[in-house]
Amino acid sequence: xxxxxxxxxxxxxxxxxxxxxxxxxxxxxxxxxxxxxxxxxxxxxxxxxxxxxxxxxxxxxxxxxxxxxxxxxxxxxxxxxxxxxxxxxxxxxxxxxxxxxxxxxxxxxxxxxxxxxxxxxxxxxxxxxxxxxxxxxxxxxxxxxxxxxxx
Amino acid sequence: xxxxxxxxxxxxxxxxxxxxxxxxxxxxxxxxxxxxxxxxxxxxxxxxxxxxxxxxxxxxxxxxxxxxxxxxxxxxx
Lengths: 151, 77
Prior knowledge:
Chain A has 151 residues and is an alpha+beta fold. Chain A has helices spanning 11-21, 23-26, 60-75, 106-123; strands spanning 2-5, 32-39, 43-44, 47-56, 80-86, 88-90, 95-103, 126-132, 137-139.
């Protein structure tokens, strides 16, 4: 399932509710679930950040996410996936994204979850505009490379 | 042909509005449309374009009733 959320969401509650709903698909079959939760920080690029607005391109966002999930399902044997992304006004510690991948064995769950997340970062049309400590706003001009170790 | 053009994020601020509805002769590329609509603005080097919500290159040719979008590199997640 793919969901765009305009209000705050609780990732672990969403995950639990979805697992219950998909019981027939997952119960007795799932050997692995890999979970990625992305959360807003209160700093970025050397500045304190007090809030952020997440803009998106409705419909294209869902289309691109569907495409990314289909590519993952072609590459790995997956039982199910759940992708939830927040849009609108967000604040530090708000969850921005949840990606969950269920599979029979751990390898597929680990690798497909990473693939979905990295593809989302480079292809799903979302844009962040940060509100700095002094109230000024700035667009985040690019995402960091998820494969490069950062501090 | 009539096409709808949409702008997002910093591109929307650069252009000054979020959409244009236009009439053009057939055979226009994405880049032609940009130059036609914004002759005084250089297209940003990192701009991304989509036709009907699929990524395309600036050389892609538009057809009637297409929705073209211009936006900066995406920063979700």
